[in-house]
């Protein structure tokens, strides 16, 4: 797998205060479900702060195919634990296709979506 094909995604959101327990249930199920998806999901983390009700997802996929496999496999988990949150921003890092970019913009429900294709790396 080349470094060029790896896709990264960050998403920040604010959770409705009454939904915090649902978020924790979603994350508990994610800890079980995501590892079963295989090696194509490189990183799948949710950092959350119950004091501010903010969450930050950090995700990384081997390629777009793995991202779509994850989206399909994870949909039942999301449907089982519908959390009321407002997406603040989505940043896509890598060579995303126009189709995936459009899909993410639709998912963002009006939130800012950014696409970063160029990267300078020291290591």
Description:
With 123 residues, the chain is α+β, with helices and mostly antiparallel strands. The chain has a single domain (3-116), classed as Alpha-Beta Plaits. Helices cover 33% and strands 33% of the residues. Strands 2-3-1-4-5 form a 5-stranded mixed sheet. α3 (98-107) links the parallel β4 and β5 (112-116). The longest helix is centred in the middle third of the chain and has 17 residues, at 64-80. It is globular and about 40 Å long. The model has no long low-confidence stretch (mean pLDDT 91).
Q: Helix count?
A: 3
- The portion of residues assigned to helices is 25-40%
Derived from helix and strand composition plus strand pairing, the structural class reads: alpha+beta
Give the biggest sheet: 5 strands, mixed
What's the CATH topology name? Alpha-Beta Plaits
First-residue to last-residue Cα separation: 17 Å
The CATH architecture category equals 2-Layer Sandwich
Overall pLDDT level = 91
Q: Order of strands in the sheet with the most strands? A: 2-3-1-4-5
Give a short summary of the structure.
By secondary structure, the chain is α+β, with helices and mostly antiparallel strands. The protein has three helices and five strands.
Would you spell out the secondary-structure blueprint of this structure?
Elements: E1 7-15, H1 20-33, E2 41-49, E3 54-61, H2 64-80, E4 85-93, H3 98-107, E5 112-116
Parallel strand pairs: 4-5
Antiparallel strand pairs: 1-3, 1-4, 2-3
Helix pairs in contact: 1-2
């Amino acid at each position: 797998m080349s470094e060029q094909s790896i896709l990264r995604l960050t998403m920040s959101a604010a959770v409705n205060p009454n939904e915090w327990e649902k978020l924790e249930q979603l994350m508990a199920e994610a800890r079980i479900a995501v590892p079963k998806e295989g090696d194509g999901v490189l990183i799948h983390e949710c950092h959350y702060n119950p004091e501010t009700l903010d969450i930050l997802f950090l995700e990384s996929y081997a390629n777009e195919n793995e991202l779509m496999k994850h989206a399909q496999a994870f949909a039942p988990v999301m449907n089982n634990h519908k959390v009321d949150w407002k997406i603040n921003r989505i940043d896509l890092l890598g060579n995303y296709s126009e189709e995936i970019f459009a899909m993410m913009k639709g998912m963002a429900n009006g939130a800012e979506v950014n696409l970063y294709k160029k990267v300078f790396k020291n290591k």
